[in-house]
Each structure stands twice: as C-alpha cells, then as structure tokens.
C-alpha cells in the first residue's frame, strides 16, 4: 500500500488522513458499555422470570450482532454493499460441522479452520469483486454467495440440502464448557466485545480514515497517493473472517449446520440489521441486530407474515432517521457517533 502523498497535495493528506482523533462526549463513550452491561444482566432476567429461552434469544442477538458488525466495516465505512456476506457465516458453521464429522471438536482448531477458509475465500472473491463498483459489485457478491451456497448443497457427504446435525458443542482444551448455555452466552458476549474494540481501533486508525476517505471520494484518495483497492480488499477480508467467527458460534448454539445460513436472503437480513441500527457507526449494527431478532421473535407470535410488519417498521425508522436508530438517538442527545 503506497502512503506517499504527492508534494502538491501533501497538506490535503495531512488534514484528511492524519487529523487527530477527536474524543467523543462522555455519554457517547459510555453508551457501548451500557449496552454490553445490559446484555451481561440478561441471565439474571432469565433466572428471575424462570424463562431460559430469554438466554437463547439473547445469544442469537449477540451472534448476529457480530455478523452485522463485520458487514458494517465494508458497508458503513467502505460503501461496499455485499449480498454475499452470509456465505462467510456458512463457511464458519461448516468448519465446525465438517471437522466435527471427523472427530475434531476443539473450538480453537475449528476457529482457525474457519478463519483460514473464510480469509482465502474473501481474498479471492474480493480481489475479483472489487474490480467492479456500484450495482455490479452487488451482483457479483451475490453470485459468489450463491456459488458457495450451491457448493454446500452439492456436498451430499455432509448432509447436502438437509444440513448436518452436530452430536454436541465444541470443546475447549478437552473440556465441554460450552454445554452450558450460560457459558456459551458469556463467551459470545466476550467475543462481540473484543470485535467491537478491534473495530473501534481500526476505524480510529489511519487505515480507517483512508477507508472512509475512499468511501467519500476515491478519486481524491488516489490523488494524494493511496490505493483504494488495497484498503478495500483488506477490509473485505477482515469482515469475512469476523463473519465466519459468527458462523462458528451459531453452529455451536443451534448444534446444526445448513446451507440455509448462506442464502442471499440471510445476507439481506444482515443488510437490514446494519441499516436499521445505523450504517457507519460501531454501535449501530449491534442495536440493529438486537432489534431485528427481537422483532422477529415478537412479531412471529402474531402472524406468520411477520416480515411485512418488520418492513413497515423499517420504513418508519428510515423516514424518521436516515442514519438509523443510533443516528436518531445521537440527535436526541446532541452527541457524536459511537
């Protein structure tokens, strides 16, 4: 990646890329940890109500919040709308399913396999996809996602269209810790918190500022000596690997792996989560995934056509705030992005 600015445009590079990071207000700094704190208290709510299903739903929220957070890196900060992002969730889930079928149940080995496979897939497909832009980028990511979906459907040795039922959850150094829903919940919460911190460091770094500059004006970024393609491809690979990690966690929660995890409709749901919460903010995808899963669970009790109600709510949110629920909350408190 070239980072040498041309002499005539050096001041522009300094002002855009090397500008000091402005610390957000105290309320904006504490908001993420307030959200994580509320999630950490969910087991107490489940215990008080005697409803263990609350913990299951909350774990699902956290897993999809992780997947939405990964998509937001390329969509919110890189303006790359991918309709094939769910493929990485499937890759992570199948890393668990396939290795388990060969007797390899160690979680760390499964994560390593998922990250390697998703990173390679993202590198190859991203290299080709990023040669396009706009609607062409959307269509080619959709095509690659569907290719991955039909590839998994064709693997009859691993269940094909019917998927794979796992005999149990992954082990950690031989210990069956994840058998407990409580341990799994706090494990997923810890992974999400770590991913949030990683994203915050990336976005605040020079890499993040170049990525945002590429989103806003790629021509200007080329003029001051940066290669948008290199930064976008790096972000694309990182996003794919984090989504694969979400797939590993999802497979362990439901103890089932299916090609349905990889469909374009699932990618569409991830996009809705990011838009609902607020693109280009770190807390937005977490809020969006939480609200989406909550609405899915609540509305499904009233009608099998719950997606119609969800669509109406999404329209109202977009009309009320073009930058989602986090943007609406930010304006109400008069703060800055989280």
Automatic annotation (TrEMBL):
<keyword id="KW-1133">Transmembrane helix</keyword>
<feature type="transmembrane region" description="Helical">
    <location>
        <begin position="270"/>
        <end position="294"/>
    </location>
</feature>
<keyword id="KW-0472">Membrane</keyword>
<feature type="transmembrane region" description="Helical">
    <location>
        <begin position="136"/>
        <end position="160"/>
    </location>
</feature>
<dbReference type="Pfam" id="PF02653">
    <property type="entry name" value="BPD_transp_2"/>
</dbReference>
<dbReference type="GO" id="GO:0005886">
    <property type="term" value="C:plasma membrane"/>
</dbReference>
<dbReference type="InterPro" id="IPR043428">
    <property type="entry name" value="LivM-like"/>
</dbReference>
<feature type="transmembrane region" description="Helical">
    <location>
        <begin position="181"/>
        <end position="203"/>
    </location>
</feature>
<feature type="transmembrane region" description="Helical">
    <location>
        <begin position="111"/>
        <end position="130"/>
    </location>
</feature>
<feature type="transmembrane region" description="Helical">
    <location>
        <begin position="30"/>
        <end position="49"/>
    </location>
</feature>
<keyword id="KW-1003">Cell membrane</keyword>
<protein>
    <submittedName>
        <fullName>Branched-chain amino acid ABC transporter permease</fullName>
    </submittedName>
</protein>
<keyword id="KW-0812">Transmembrane</keyword>
<dbReference type="InterPro" id="IPR001851">
    <property type="entry name" value="ABC_transp_permease"/>
</dbReference>
<feature type="transmembrane region" description="Helical">
    <location>
        <begin position="306"/>
        <end position="325"/>
    </location>
</feature>
<dbReference type="GO" id="GO:0015658">
    <property type="term" value="F:branched-chain amino acid transmembrane transporter activity"/>
</dbReference>
<feature type="transmembrane region" description="Helical">
    <location>
        <begin position="223"/>
        <end position="250"/>
    </location>
</feature>
């Amino acid at each position: 990646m070239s980072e040498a600015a041309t002499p005539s445009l050096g001041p522009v590079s300094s002002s855009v890329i090397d500008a000091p990071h402005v610390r957000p207000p105290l309320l904006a700094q504490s908001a993420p940890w307030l959200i994580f704190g509320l999630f950490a208290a969910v087991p107490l709510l489940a215990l008080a109500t005697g409803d263990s299903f609350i913990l299951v739903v909350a774990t699902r929220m956290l897993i999809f919040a992780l997947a939405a957070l990964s998509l937001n890196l390329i969509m919110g900060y890189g303006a790359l709308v991918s309709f094939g992002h769910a493929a990485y969730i499937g890759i992570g889930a199948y890393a668990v399913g396939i290795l388990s079928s060969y007797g390899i149940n160690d979680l760390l080995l499964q994560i390593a396999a998922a990250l390697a496979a998703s990173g390679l897939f993202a590198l190859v497909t991203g290299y080709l996809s990023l040669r396009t832009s706009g609607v062409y980028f959307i269509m080619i990511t959709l095509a690659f996602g569907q290719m991955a979906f039909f590839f998994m459907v064709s693997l009859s040795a691993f269940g094909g269209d019917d998927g794979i039922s796992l005999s149990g959850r992954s082990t950690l150094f031989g210990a069956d810790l994840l058998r407990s829903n409580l341990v799994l919940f706090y494990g997923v919460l810890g992974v999400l918190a770590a991913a949030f911190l990683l994203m915050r460091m990336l976005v605040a770094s020079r890499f993040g500022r170049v990525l945002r500059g590429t989103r806003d004006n790629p021509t200007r970024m080329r003029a001051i000596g940066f290669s948008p393609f290199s930064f976008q491809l790096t972000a694309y690979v990182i996003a794919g690997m984090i989504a694969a990690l979400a797939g590993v966690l999802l497979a362990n929660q439901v103890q089932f792996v299916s090609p349905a995890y990889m469909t374009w409709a699932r990618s569409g749901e991830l996009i809705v989560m990011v838009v609902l919460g607020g693109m280009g903010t770190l807390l937005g995808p977490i809020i969006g995934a939480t609200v989406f899963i909550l609405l899915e669970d609540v509305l499904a009790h009233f009608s099998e056509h719950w997606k119609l109600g969800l669509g109406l709510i999404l329209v109202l949110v977009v009309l009320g705030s073009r930058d989602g629920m986090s943007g609406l909350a930010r304006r109400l408190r008069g703060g800055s992005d989280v």
